[in-house]
Amino acid sequence: MSALSDLRILDFSRVLAGPFCTMLLGDLGADVIKIEQPESGDETRMWGPPYAGAAADGMSAYYLSVNRNKRSLTLNLKSERGRDLARELAKKSDVLIENFKVGGMRGFGLDYESLRQLNPALIYCSISGYGQTGSQAQQPGYDYVIQAQSGLMSITGPADGAPYKVGVAIADVITALTAANAIQAALLHRTKTGVGQYIDIALLDSQISALVNVASNYLVSRQPPPRYGNAHANIAPYETYKAADDYFILAVGNDGQFRRCCAVMGISDTADDPRFSTNPARLKHAADLRAILQPILLTRSAQAWIAAFHAANVPAGSIASVADALESDQLRERGMIQHATLANGEEVDLVGSALHLQGTVPQIRLPPPLLGQHTVEVLREVLALSESEIAALREADAI
Questions:
Q1: In the predicted model, is pLDDT for residue 2 greater than 90?
Q2: Which are the catalytic amino acids?
């Protein structure tokens, strides 16, 4: 049994934040109908290389990453008949999610206020860069810009160098997680009241919330946080160190761990030094502490130090490449690498769901779809249209 198997989601989103959100819900069993523009579809289909498949069946790895467990229905929203189909589908859906520019769905007559008249139980989620209100609401939202505007880049990168973005579109990813959580809360509320609601999710809001302790540090102190490179603003030693052969991470989280760390390194007296005996003291004298630790850590290999620290229950770890991480035994043993067969018969590996539920296990039921692959199927199944009706819609360029 799947947790959300009785739910239908009408997905008007594209690119990353919206599709990732709906994929998470699809993994939990929801029937996700991905609405795409005829001929072009979600622009990420062509965001490659690399691609899986060839010619008309080719799909970019980017698109594959967030579009499994969905059925693709092409719908021309510039056509009145296409918009009528969207309204009929909304009547029979539990959730609608969209990431058009603010006001875009209203232009099609598919905004929440219009659709709630047809389906009062509909949960309607809009994802945008800055939200539906505020002075920046009309500006387009892009992950890179949001990383910059949220302050994230100001705390990322070398302490004395240029600000860096995170290596993945993290603002989009966090927004997707936020939206999925909000939608499930709204579904729970609907079970109690029978009434749907509108959800307004912004990339900027989501990324600001993800600053967590850094934002709190500023709000408490009113001191702008500097960049620490690979160090930590509140804990020491908690950063990257160089061993004899490679870099590795040493992440000491409390005084007991620091005492054991010093014992492993053969400098037990350092744990009693007033400059280092408590975390606030270590943080104040972080440069002095690093000057003591780094030369010692250069005397052995990274793996030797990691093994020694692990034996003493001190957190430490290697710095893996993406390839190393994805090929690791741990991920395979956790089922985090899954397989899917595309419509053209090609086998692809996909990152599995991070939600490990015992009773309602997320599954890859459907591979990422070809553009319009399920148009006829959905129109027959959901709207009970006949072959001749579907043919007429195609002739009228509505689908």
A1: no
A2: 172
